[in-house]
Amino acid sequence: MTISALILAGGRGRRLGNMEKALMKCDGKSVLERTINMLDDVVDEVLVSVRDEKQEKEFESHARGKKMVPDSYSDIGPLAGILEGFKAAKGEYIFVTACDMPFIDPKVVEFMFQCAEGHDAAVPLRLDGSMEPLCGVYRVAPLLPLIEKSIGSGKRFILAPVFELDDVIGVEMERIREVDPHLRTFININTFDDMDKLDVC
């Protein structure tokens, strides 16, 4: 079975002064390159979602030859990038992540694929029971038309199409903690304080 991964890199980083989050440095590499290197060991195909051709050119030297997919819709948020990534994906299942999560553990990615097999999706559950969509694995075929439907009806909430799926597995954090004890996979960078704490520049 072919499996894919999609890195959402089209955000504008408004809370970081419109900084390109994907180009932040972590351990001497851009976060984008670091994430690609990790996913390369787990999946058959890595795709990078970008907002436009200008951003695609800016990321070219960091994308390690991976296919970049520009948004067809502008200013509607992550669903636009997810839509184009799903259209381009060759895999039956796809892992979706964001470019501001530099500490993803490959064992977590593998575990999420195992949880998703035979289902429409496997999505981590936060401690309060809510879903963390940007570390989930989704079966492309049933979700793609639901993403198009959500965008068409003005529902831009990233989980809107996921809620329409018939067979979603919620994966509790305690199960994920068995492979990632400190849950570093879920650390993301939103502010300059986050950058300082995590030694990212």
Q: Please, could you describe this protein's structure?
A:
The protein has 201 residues and is α/β, with parallel strands linked by helices. It is built from seven helices and nine strands. The strands form two sheets. It has a seven-stranded mixed sheet, sandwiched between helices. A two-stranded antiparallel sheet has the order 2-3. The longest helix has 13 residues, at 140-152. The model has no long low-confidence stretch (mean pLDDT 91).
In round numbers, the mean pLDDT is: 91
> What's the total count of β strands?
9
Strand/helix succession = EEEHEHEHEHEEHEHH
Instruction: For the largest sheet, list the strands in their spatial order.
Output: 5-4-1-6-8-7-9
SSE order and pairing:
Layout: E1 3-8, E2 25-26, E3 29-30, H1 31-40, E4 45-50, H2 53-59, E5 67-70, H3 78-88, E6 93-98, H4 106-116, E7 121-125, E8 135-139, H5 140-152, E9 168-172, H6 173-177, H7 192-198
Parallel strand pairs: 1-4, 1-6, 4-5, 7-9
Antiparallel strand pairs: 2-3, 6-8, 7-8
Helix pairs in contact: 3-5
Concise synopsis of the structure shown:
The protein is 32% helix and 20% strand.
Keywords, separated by commas or semicolons:
single chain; 201 residues; alpha/beta; seven-stranded mixed sheet; 32% helix
